[in-house]
Amino acid sequence: MRRVTRLVTLVALLWLVNNPIGSAWAETVVGHNNENRTIVALRVTPAAAQAWVPGPWQVDPIGAGPSKDANFLIVFINPWLVQGPDGKPAAPPIHRRVALVFPAKHPQTGEAAFFVARVYDSNPNAAPGPYKNSIPVATVRVEQTQAGAGTEPGTGSEVWDVRDASGGALEFRFQYQRGVPVRVKSESKPRSTVEPDFYRIYKVDQGVAMVKSVPAGIDRIQQYSLRVTMAELVKLFDGTEEVVSVALVPWYMRQVSLP
Predict the structure, then answer these.
(1) Which of the four pLDDT bands, split at 50, 70 and 90, describes residue 159?
(2) How far apart are CA 108 and CA 120, in angstroms?
(3) Residue 14 DSSP SS3
(4) Nearest one of 229, 252, 105, 223 to 162, comparing CA atoms
(5) How far apart are CA 3 and CA 134, in angstroms?
(6) What's the rounded Cα separation, in Å, for the pair 35 and 205?
């Protein structure tokens, strides 16, 4: 159990921590997010992944932990409440979305970063979004269920159905046995593939529970299906993609700042 806990913490840190953040006095708070997430880490064809990352940055697969060798993350985001910098509900206060993220490294400086490459957003006014690559989609529908009794972690299921304007789909379905999450408090600064020098600062309090990890030998998934027919994702999902891990994030509370 101790080994699994350390591995879960490591994958969370790999996702959240890239480089030290500047002094807090220089930051401007621009919003707050309260939500739950599901993160699917995959290994896809390197050339297909690299096509989403701006040069000279190079896709750099995760080097250790439960998501070792993954070079592509799909982050399914289900908000409870989105707030402005003053703490008041944003407009809209709830907009479900799905983010495509790639780990990368700068070959000259050695800097590592996560790049947000695309956001499919249910908010019709989402474009272009903070990373300049958000697109509104026709629907982002999610169903989440949980069942349990007494002190057992219980079981759950999720269905995500994302449809773009042309009818392309990103569908994710799975059933799982729940585990006990690890609480992680961290900071990160994801970058934009459109403007590589742009980043936002995230201060996060979250829980992470791995339900699948090939490197760690964890598999609590009972049923699983991932179907993608969106035209821009064809090369990523060419039939050779492999799922490395699936992480549940039952709470994700974030303060968003700009440097």
Answers:
(1) very high
(2) 32
(3) helix
(4) 229
(5) 38
(6) 11
Q: How confident is the model at residue 248 (pLDDT cuts 50, 70, 90)?
A: very high
What is the C-alpha separation between 174 and 163, in angstroms, rounded? 18
Instruction: Please state, in angstroms and rounded to a whole number, the distance separating the CA atoms of residues 171 and 73.
Output: 15
Query: Which residue has better confidence, 14 or 63?
Result: 63
- Residue 26 pLDDT: 75
Taking the C-alpha atoms of residue 156 and residue 179, their distance in angstroms, rounded to an integer, is 10
Question: Strand, coil or helix: what is 160?
Answer: strand
CB atoms near residue 124 (< 10 Å): 11
Tokens of 232: 């821009």
CB atoms within 10 A of CB 240: 10
Quickly list DSSP for 91-155.
SSS---EEEEEEEEE-TTT--EEEEEEEEEES-TT-TTTTTT-EEE-SEEEEEEEEE--TTS--E
Model confidence at 23: pLDDT above 80: no
Q: What is the pLDDT of residue 14?
A: 43
Whole-number Å distance between alpha carbons of 204 and 241: 30
Q: What is the mean pLDDT of the segment spanning 146-166?
A: 95
Residue 120 Cα to chain centre, angstroms: 12
Q: How far apart are CA 99 and CA 114, in angstroms?
A: 12
For residues 193 and 53, is the Cβ–Cβ distance under 8 A? yes
Q: End-to-end distance of the chain based on CA atoms, in angstroms?
A: 39
Amino acid type, 134 = S
The tens digit of pLDDT for each residue in 67-94 reads: 999 999 999 999 999 999 999 999 999 9
Evaluate if residue 97 carries a pLDDT over 70. Answer: yes
Residues in the chain: 259
